[in-house]
Structures are given as structure tokens and as C-alpha cells.
Amino acid sequence: MPILNRGFRSRRQPGDDRLPPGQHLADGFPVLTAGPTPRVPTDTWRFVITDAARRRHTWSWDELMRLPREQITADIHCVTKWSKLGTRWEGVSLDTLFESVPAVADHALVHTYDAYTTNVPLGDLLGAKAWLAYRYEGAELDPRHGGPARLLVPHLYLWKSAKWVRGMHLLDHDEPGFWEMRGYHNYGDPWREQRYAGD
Q1: For the segment 48-66, what is each residue's pLDDT rounded down to a tens digit?
Q2: Residue 103: its pLDDT value, please?
Q3: Terminal Cα-to-Cα distance of the chain (whole angstroms)
Q4: pTM of this prediction?
């Protein structure tokens, strides 16, 4: 069973209003995972949204690459108290994918190629709030950071931005994911320091 890590000891830099409480600026891009890094070839990669009626909506890598892409600049915040400001990503908005999916649900349970899950309210995935990101700082997304594609939900702690994403189930009820079942907060708002259950 993974060990619950309460994070690095750090201090927020004075005068930086882009850093949530308790966060510090990271050097580099730390790699934190609960297991080995999956290597997912793009020719077998699939992303599947299973809607509330259990219909499957599937995209191959080639189909994903044909969808409109967006350039995203976002601050990201890890529950272990590091942040990176102004990170540059490229990917497809979930709004684009949901144009062909009936969004009759309240919640999504996200699944990955390493059997990780995380729960996110559907309202936090739509309205230009979330993307399937496949490029970072002008290069293909490194597998250590979730390549070939990861979910990017930058307004929540980074564990909600699942690496190696392969799909999501739309649900009419909330269902906790991997870290949420192990003591992390159910929602994960960095500005409210929602790191752990009870925060």
C-alpha cells in the first residue's frame, strides 16, 4: 500500500499572490508516482468516455490528433506543496470531446493505464477548465509526466490531473478514487488547502 506523504517542508515566497497557501516554487518538474511508469504506444492508445447510459465514446490517438488543439498556460500545484507557475501545455479541451457525449451526469471517475483512478465533478472538467494534454513546454509529454497524454485540471491539486489517462466513467453519484480512498481530500482546491480528508 502506498505511503501517504504529507509533503515537503517549505515556505511560501513572500509577495507571490500566485502561490496558494503552503506552497513553494519547485526547481524542475518533480516526478511523484505510486508505481512504475507505464509505456503506452500511441498506436494502441485509446481514450474512452462511458456516459451515464453506459455508451462508450472512443478516440484513437490519430483521432485525437485531428481534433482542434489548444495552447494552455497554467500554474500547477502538487499536494506535496510544490508549485510551478506559467507552465505551457498543448492538448484538446474536454469541451471538444463532450460535443459528442451527452453530459447527463454530475461526476466523473477518471481511469488510467496504470489502474489509478481519481474523481472529479463534471463541472470542473467542462467550461475551459480541463484538457487532454500531450505536449509540455514545446515537446511531446514525457512518460514520467504522464505521456503520451494526461488529464490537466490546473485549478485543482495535481493528483486530479491523472497521468497516462485512458478514460472516464460519468456517474450520477460521487465515487472516490485511488488517493481519495487513502486519505486525500475529495475535491482538492489548492487555495483552500484541501490536501487531506477534513481539511
Answers
A1: 999 999 999 999 999 999 9
A2: 79
A3: 23
A4: 0.90
110 in a domain, yes or no?
A: yes
What is the full DSSP assignment across 29-60? -----SSPPP---TTT-EEEEE-TT--EEEEE
- Asked, for residue 123, whether it belongs to a domain, the answer is yes
CA distances from 41 to 38, 44, 70, 148, 164 (A): 10, 6, 23, 8, 11
Helix (H) / strand (E) containing 24 = strand 24-25
| Domain coverage including residue 67 | 43-192
Q: Rounded CA gap, 33 and 29, in Å?
A: 13
Give all strands (DSSP E) within 36-183, no chain letters: 46-50, 56-60, 70-77, 82-93, 107-112, 117-121, 131-136, 139-140, 150-152, 165-171
**pLDDT tier, 164 (very low <50, low <70, confident <90, very high otherwise):** very high
Number of domains in the chain: 1
Would 47 be classed as within a structural domain? yes
In the prediction, which pLDDT does 199 show?
84
In a domain? residue 13: no
Interval 165-178: pLDDT, tens:
999 999 999 999 99
CATH number (domain holding residue 148) = 3.90.420.10
